[in-house]
Design a protein that fits this description.
The complex is a heterodimer of chains A (about 300) and B (about 325). With about 300 residues, chain A is α/β, with parallel strands linked by helices. Chain A is built from twelve helices and 13 strands. In chain A, strand 1 and strand 2 form a beta hairpin. Chain B has a two-stranded antiparallel sheet with strand order 1-2. Classes of the chains: A alpha/beta (about 300), B mainly alpha (about 325).
């Protein structure tokens, strides 16, 4: 009799759990494969990357952000928040002092610091966004994690539809210019296959010449650039600032070697804001639209 | 009381002051009485301050003491053995070997922790000892180990290991993040080091340091010249090998947890020798204290100067140590023979 009662109690309890759990707690996986189980949405968040900060602001939870990195400069309000990390270094003391209930990291953060934080009992959720589609999916997951699913889904849908629009326009365009991302100072680096920049260039309807090299961030010589003969060069850094781009183009057109590169000859060297193209955040879609416009600019 | 023990006493108090200062000062300043209360296990152990002090700052300061002591002692031994003022703990390839090991670990993504040992630290330790072992193997001829051969093969193998490290960084560079990690590691740092790192390094350092201290008298005799040592009945080759092994061992242990921190092992022994004299029985412990003081203070500056970011500690050890060393050199009257 007692035994049957306890079985029944268990069954009832289990049934109640099944109904309640999905509502009050959600299990979410981060990009390093760690599962998270939050009974209530985190309210004191530390962002360890500019892209994370931009996502949190875009999700409208900026009031929950209690610490950012020195490089978090957008939106401007982020600049006034407490700085708890530098480039590749996390100031553990400041993080602990801020009493966070969530640290939002990226794969590039110092792993030892993240391990320390976990050992101190602070949950660390890591993102690893490497292409346009992952921006939307990261936003959706953050939305679930932070209890702002609706807002997140609206935002992710609108970003995804902007990406779709660019894709559709690309299909209408038959010309597919070859594009190289990089700087012309030594050493010359470019973006290979699998990078975010590669995804942006290809989605925008260009052909990323960087794919011809091995590796994700190949270091190349001027000879290689001449051989690849890109029709367009996209840069995120101009020596002397973006305003001196036309002067730089003039100089390259006079420089032996560089003047043989089609992009230099035709002056199709464009500047795209680095904070858009290099940060795996919502503004990557701005970068995509900018690049798409530049690639299919009518001469 | 001898002059030597007086200086050791002064160094001990200097280290104590440095450690306490390091525990008080940081991104979050903790008053001295709280530090003492936390250390003695007082209440409020759950406060953020207590966590910062006991889980973040304390292990880091202890590691600075260990690494500084190990590097300075190792440097003193190398300078004594090789009779060369330019010798330092890295002269037989410890640093390049450790750099290679750590680079291999990081470029292969071996960021694991295994029974309290980090993959990077483990491979760095193995790399350091591996290169040293090869140097010894090459230099050993007929039971003897000529110092010049050790020096030259150490330099050659060190260069080889460094070039392989650079190759790995440039060629096997799938991930820009790995390159960053490797660069920061090669510059040396105590950032984000925890109790795990302390546990990983102290047994080797303690063992090696004791072994070296036990051989301090032999080292005294060796510095008089190997021939003289032989006349005095010393088993020269055995002592030499043990000392070299011990010095490489403690340096490898230090480097495996801190990355490559330069200058400490080169300059601290010189400075201390000017004060304490050449008797290694006093010189070695004094060097350990001096190295610990330098590194504790350097690490303090590394974490507060550009707060919230951190400077690589190697920059600070040179910035602090160099002018001081040059000042001492310029004041020296006698010329060393």
């Amino acid at each position: 009799m007692f035994k049957r009662f306890s079985y029944r109690t268990c069954a009832v309890l289990w049934g109640i759990m099944c109904v309640i759990m999905p509502i009050h707690a959600a299990e979410i996986q981060d990009d390093l494969g760690e599962a998270f189980f939050f009974s209530s949405p985190p309210m004191r968040i530390i962002s360890l990357a500019p892209s994370n900060t931009e996502m949190l602001f875009a999700l409208g939870v900026e009031n929950r952000v209690v610490g950012v990195t020195e490089y978090c400069n957008y939106p401007p309000k982020a600049d006034s928040l407490e700085k708890v990390a530098g480039f590749n270094t996390v100031n553990l003391e400041k993080v602990v002092q801020a009493r966070p209930d969530l640290v939002l990291a990226i794969r590039g953060n110092d792993m030892e610091s993240l391990r320390s934080l976990r050992q101190l009992g602070i949950p660390v959720f890591s993102l690893d966004v490497q292409n346009l589609d992952q921006v939307s999916s990261a936003l959706r997951r953050l939305g679930m994690l932070l209890g702002v699913e609706h807002h997140a889904n609206v935002l992710a849908d609108s970003l995804a539809s902007r990406v779709r629009l660019v894709r559709r326009e690309r299909e209408a365009n038959t010309e597919k210019p070859s594009v190289m991302w990089g700087f012309w100072g030594e050493p010359i680096y470019t973006a290979g296959a699998g990078t975010m920049i590669d995804d942006v260039i290809e989605t925008a309807g260009g052909e990323n010449v960087g794919r011809l090299a091995k590796g994700t961030w190949p270091q190349i010589s001027l000879e290689t650039v001449i051989e690849w003969a890109p029709e367009v060069i996209i840069t995120t850094h101009v020596p002397g600032g973006a305003d001196s781009l036309s002067k730089e183009v003039d100089r390259l057109q006079e420089t032996e070697g560089w003047k043989r590169v089609p992009a230099v000859r035709s002056g199709r060297i464009y500047y795209v804001e680095g904070d858009w193209l290099l940060r795996p955040g919502p503004r990557l879609v701005h970068a995509l639209q900018a690049v798409a416009e530049l690639l299919h600019e009518k001469e | 009381m001898t002059r030597g023990s007086l200086i050791v006493g002064a160094l001990v108090s200097g280290l104590l002051v440095s450690v306490l200062l390091s525990l008080c000062v940081g991104s979050v300043d903790i008053p001295l009485h709280s530090v003492i209360a936390f250390l003695s296990g007082g209440n409020h152990v759950d406060s953020a301050e207590a966590v910062i002090l006991l889980e973040i700052r304390l292990p880091r300061v202890i590691l600075a003491v260990l690494v500084g002591a190990a590097l300075a002692q190792s440097g003193a031994v190398m300078q004594g053995l090789f009779q060369n003022p330019m010798a330092d703990p890295y002269i037989v390839g410890v640093s390049s070997g450790a750099g290679l090991g750590a680079t291999v670990a990081m470029s292969l993504g071996l960021n694991f922790w295994f029974y309290g040992l980090s993959g990077v630290g483990l491979l760095a330790f193995i790399g350091a000892l591996g290169v040293t072992a090869v140097v010894y193997g090459i230099s050993l001829r007929g039971g003897r180990m000529p110092v010049t051969v050790v020096l030259l093969s150490g330099i050659a193998l060190g260069a080889l290991a460094s070039s392989i490290t650079s190759y790995l960084m440039v060629a096997v560079r799938d991930d820009l993040f790995d390159t960053q990690r490797i660069l920061f590691w090669l510059m040396g740092s105590l950032a984000s080091r925890r109790w795990e790192h302390v546990h990983m390094a102290w047994p080797q350092i303690a063992l090696g340091a004791l072994c070296i201290q036990w051989l301090a008298r032999d080292l005294n005799i060796l510095t008089q010249g190997e021939e003289y040592a032989l006349y005095l009945g010393l088993d020269v080759e055995r002592s030499k090998r043990l000392l070299l092994l011990g010095a490489s061992f403690v340096a490898a242990a230090a480097v495996s947890v801190s990355g490559i921190i330069g200058f400490v092992g080169l300059v601290v022994p010189h400075v201390i020798r000017m004060w304490v004299g050449p008797d290694h029985r006093f010189l070695l412990p004094a060097c350990m204290l001096g190295g610990a003081i330098l590194l504790v203070n350097a690490d303090l500056l590394a974490r507060v100067l550009i707060d919230p970011a951190e400077l690589p500690i190697g920059i600070i050890t040179s910035l602090l140590g160099c002018p001081f060393f040059l000042y001492l050199l310029s004041r020296r009257k006698e010329v060393e023979g």
